[in-house]
């Protein structure tokens, strides 16, 4: 105790004396490897026979690398940190550590790199724990069905391609069609809903990274989000790690019983990085020069997204992986892999974008395999009718292109379809609450909107979200009450 201690620090001196007394000299064996080559973000090392895959190597001048390839004499490792002094001849040791990242609420509102270092110029995030970057996915017995809706705020998705908490929904399409915009809108729509979001950016240029962060900040969505960035110019090893690191951050919240959403923007770049690393490490290429285990890699990542059952805290991780296609081709290797791994896809179409239909989502090529079960029953009832009407209209519309004369009933259907298409158009950064969406669905299905002129529609729709909120109705309210509100809304706008 300090008060009775004659000499401050004598306790530690006594401890050292005891350690010295018990000390017996002996041989300690440590393996020491040597770097034989450095380049393109990878190193080759000789002399570490006991190193295993995914071991972290500590290099004597301060760099770190991850064991990625084991050969007979040499091992290949991907650099995660590279100091300028790294060269052939540098000494390497197996560090004995596994790769992990700081997790916890201290990461909210922060921008970090895949190793957890801050990129926003602030102090390192206050971490409550560390999460393994490569962790096994939850076993089947720990999982529950996807049974609660995750609202994106997008009219077209929440009605016809609904997503549930714990679902993995692919965003797929050519470049520049609004995939990132859609993912950002979804993150923004989680504001105030208790869903923590992780936005992972892989291999994008600085300007795109800044625009994502600014969009989230301006929308007040950074407070419930973490942005994890591996921009185009960083080491390929970091780009390879980024999705797993982001997943680990979301996973920690999920295990605390929270609902989380993670966006991987995008996995095409991730796959290309992995191909690059694999070819540099002389792994055999397979289809389209990708190594065969890219499928394993992406499925292992997405299997970590799930809805845990009540015994496990009931948390969930919804995943929105993004894939970029070329010329709309979804049958190439990486897209087909991801389509088979995920629970559905939202397809962005060039033709729609060019025609000014935004968001450019093609309902006929999009599917949500499990989200329907999670949709609120009232919404599901309305949306079911709507979707049928819309798909029928899209087929009918093809005939009108040939100038065929149609029956009056057909003509009416086409008119209704055109109106529906106009309603489904939505600017970015304008998410709609589910109550507002329900209101237009009821109004449309009951024919209350029939006869409204196309020019009058935008003003009518602009007034709707406020109207729905003021009504104070919930999805459990009787349909008649909703119809009353809808009628009043349309009357008011007309009058
Ligand atoms: N609903 C929308 N309303 C208006 N503009 C939109 C909408 N969705 C996307 N855009 C615009 O389309 C452009 C492309 O969007 P975005 O960058 O999200 O596409 P992307 O598919 O992520 O592209 P990339 O493949 O380059 O990452 C942006 O200028 C965006 O503002
Ligand atoms: Mg994008």
TrEMBL record:
One of its GO terms (molecular function) is ATP binding. Keywords: ATP synthesis, ATP-binding, Cell membrane, CF(1), Hydrogen ion transport, Ion transport, Membrane, Nucleotide-binding, Translocase, Transport. PROSITE patterns: ATPASE_ALPHA_BETA. Its EC number is 7.1.2.2. Residues 153-368 form the ATPase F1/V1/A1 complex alpha/beta subunit nucleotide-binding domain. It catalyses: ATP + H2O + 4 H(+)(in) = ADP + phosphate + 5 H(+)(out). The record marks 366 as: Required for activity. Residues 375-459 form the ATP synthase alpha subunit C-terminal domain. It is found in: Cell membrane; Membrane. It is a peripheral membrane protein. It is an enzyme of class 7 (translocase). One of its GO terms (cellular component) is plasma membrane. Pfam families: ATP-synt_ab, ATP-synt_ab_C. Belongs to the ATPase alpha/beta chains family. NCBIfam families: atpA (TIGR00962), PRK13343.1 (NF009884). Produces ATP from ADP in the presence of a proton gradient across the membrane. The alpha chain is a regulatory subunit. F-type ATPases have 2 components, CF(1) - the catalytic core - and CF(0) - the membrane proton channel. CF(1) has five subunits: alpha(3), beta(3), gamma(1), delta(1), epsilon(1). CF(0) has four main subunits: a(1), b(1), b'(1) and c(9-12). This is ATP synthase subunit alpha. The gene is atpA.
């Amino acid at each position: 105790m300090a008060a009775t201690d004659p000499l401050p620090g004598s306790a530690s001196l006594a401890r050292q004396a005891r350690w010295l007394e018990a000390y017996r000299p002996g041989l300690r064996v440590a393996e020491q490897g040597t770097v034989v080559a450095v380049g393109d973000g990878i190193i080759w090392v000789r002399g570490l026979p006991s190193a295993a895959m995914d071991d972290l190597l500590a290099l004597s001048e301060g760099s770190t690398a991850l064991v990625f390839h084991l050969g007979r004499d040499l091992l290949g490792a991907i650099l995660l940190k590279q100091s300028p002094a790294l060269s052939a001849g540098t000494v390497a040791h197996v560090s004995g550590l596994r790769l992990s990242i700081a997790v916890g609420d201290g990461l909210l509102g922060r921008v970090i790199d895949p190793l957890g270092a801050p990129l926003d110029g602030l102090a390192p995030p206050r971490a409550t724990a560390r999460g393994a970057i490569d962790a096994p996915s939850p076993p089947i017995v720990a999982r529950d069905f996807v049974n609660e809706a995750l609202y994106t705020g997008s009219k077209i998705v929440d009605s016809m391609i609904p997503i549930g908490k714990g679902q993995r929904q692919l965003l797929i399409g050519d470049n520049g069609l609004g995939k990132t915009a859609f993912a950002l809108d979804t993150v923004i729509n989680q504001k105030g809903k208790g869903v923590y979001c992780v936005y992972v950016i892989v291999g994008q240029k600085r300007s795109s990274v800044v625009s994502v962060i600014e969009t989230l900040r301006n929308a007040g969505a950074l407070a419930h989000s973490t942005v994890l960035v591996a921009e185009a110019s960083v080491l390929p090893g970091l780009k390879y790690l980024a999705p797993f690191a982001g997943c680990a951050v979301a996973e920690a919240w999920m295990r605390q019983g929270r609902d989380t959403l993670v966006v991987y923007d995008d996995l095409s770049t991730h796959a290309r990085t992995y191909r690059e690393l694999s070819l540099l490490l002389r792994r055999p290429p397979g289809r389209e020069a990708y190594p065969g285990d890219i499928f394993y890699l992406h499925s292992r990542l997405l299997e970590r997204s799930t809805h845990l059952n009540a015994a496990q805290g009931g948390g969930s991780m919804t995943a929105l992986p993004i894939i970029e296609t070329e010329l709309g081709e979804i049958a190439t290797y990486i897209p087909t892999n991801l389509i088979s791994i995920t629970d559905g896809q939202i397809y962005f179409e060039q033709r729609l974008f060019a025609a000014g239909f935004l968001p450019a989502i093609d309902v006929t090529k999009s599917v949500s395999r499990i989200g329907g079960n999670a949709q609120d029953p009232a919404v599901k009832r309305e949306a079911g009718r709507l979707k049928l009407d819309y798909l029928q209209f899209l087929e009918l519309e093809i005939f009108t292109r040939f100038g065929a004369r149609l029956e009056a009933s057909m003509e009416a259907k086409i008119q209704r379809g055109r109106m529906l298409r106009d309603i489904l158009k939505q600017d970015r950064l304008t998410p709609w609450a589910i109550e507002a969406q329900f209101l237009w669905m009821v109004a449309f299905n009951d024919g209350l909107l029939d006869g409204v002129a196309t020019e009058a529609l935008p003003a009518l729709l602009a007034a709707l979200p406020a109207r729905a909120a003021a009504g104070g109705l919930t999805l459990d309210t009787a349909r008649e009450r909703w119809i009353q509100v809808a009628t009043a809304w349309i009357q008011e706008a007309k009058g």
